[in-house]
Amino acid sequence: MTPSTPNLPLLHVQNLSKFYGRTIGCHNINFELAQGEVIGIVGESGSGKSTLLKCIAGTETPTNGSVFFNSSFGFLDLIQADEILLRKIARTHTGFVTQNPRDGLRMNISAGGNIGERLMANGMRNYTQIRKIALDWLERVEIDPERINDLPSTFSGGMQQRLQIAANLVCDPKIILMDEPTSGLDVSVQARLIDVLRKLVAGLRLSMILVTHDLAVARLLSHRLYVMKKGRIVESGLSDQILDDPREPYTQLLVSSILKP
Ligand SMILES: Nc1ncnc2c1ncn2[C@@H]1O[C@H](COP(=O)(O)OP(=O)(O)OP(=O)(O)O)[C@@H](O)[C@H]1O
Ligand SMILES: [Mg+2]
């Protein structure tokens, strides 16, 4: 599936703001995401990373702004699009790995069901084939395929996060939004998951917006970085450049781990 307009970015976020009453969630965010590009979003806790991602994913309604998406449905503003189209886009074009896997999984259906559900929503009906694909994806995210009939509630936090990733990637989305996909995992599992994600991103030419508090993960996975502070972007640029030579004092504190990201 190619974008309808090849000379436009895949995603264009324009003047996006979200206020919770008088609290700033995120404010006046602007950026573009190209096909095959990975953008990292970093910043201290409470800086608005999850809010921004939720507004793009459509699970929060922004107070202002637009999220233009260049898809086979045209270059449309997701904020203004109607419900039915949004659901279709969410099923076929985008994936959202939430910070808390319980928000992104159906806890009362099996691991295999969580993966298969998306395939069925996209019209696949052959049970044997669905099961085969689910088993394959469990293996790809390093969950023992024997756990296919188990409920996600019996999984560890890290396993739930990996299941969420599999359930999101199974339908080959164009864009995947990930909120802290590696947090709460032990170091060896984290390293393997990063490796899985790198291969997937390269192999599927996936575009990704990755929120992470882990700057090493940001460096490994993202081409460009956006640094958030109090809901705003304070610095952006190539990941290596930002991490090796941060300009803003806030980014310098973040990189030197004086601020808790
Ligand atoms: N549902 C909500 N209602 C009210 N305020 C909210 C809500 N969600 C987020 N906020 C506020 O918006 C700001 C940004 O929160 P957000 O969760 O986006 O931060 P974050 O950068 O993802 O933090 P963390 O790294 O801890 O996950 C915070 O001040 C937070 O209290
Ligand atoms: Mg968050």
Structure summarized in a few sentences:
The protein has 261 residues and is an alpha/beta fold.
Please describe what this structure looks like.
The protein is an alpha/beta fold and 261 residues long. It has a domain at 106-170. 38% of the residues lie in helices and 25% in strands. The protein contains ten helices and ten strands. The strands form two sheets. It has a six-stranded mixed sheet with strand order 6-7-8-3-9-10, with helices on both faces. A four-stranded antiparallel sheet has the order 2-1-4-5, with helices on one face. Strand 9 (224-229) and strand 10 (232-238) form a beta hairpin. Helix 4 packs across helix 5 and helix 4 runs parallel beside helix 6. It is globular, with a radius of gyration of 18 Å. The N and C termini lie far apart (36 Å). The mean pLDDT is 90. Bound molecules: adenosine-5'-triphosphate (ATP) and magnesium ion. Magnesium ion is lined by residues 49-50, 99, 179.
